[in-house]
Amino acid sequence: MQMIVKTRPEAAAAVRRKAGGERAAAIESLSGSPGALQQTLRTLGIQLQPLHPNIDDPQLSTYFTAEVDDTAAERVMAALNAEPAVEGAYPAAKPEPA
Q: Which of 83, 90, 91 has the alpha carbon at shortest distance from 11?
């Protein structure tokens, strides 16, 4: 299942400033407790990817995606929604035929 994760603007900026493999290091400073979000992501076994990778819009740049096993989706959403650097985590809408 694909999940949408909306972070606080300062958290998104920190992630987006870093390129490639440095992205994980940026996530460590996203919450009040250094490394809290990074630890949560490691524990859950997920990675955040920008939903809109090549944009400068301050609102759209706060959205990320994460691939999550369907059986763990509720647990993952609850854990992410408990993080200070996360404004919301929810399932992505499934595309439907027109």
A: 83
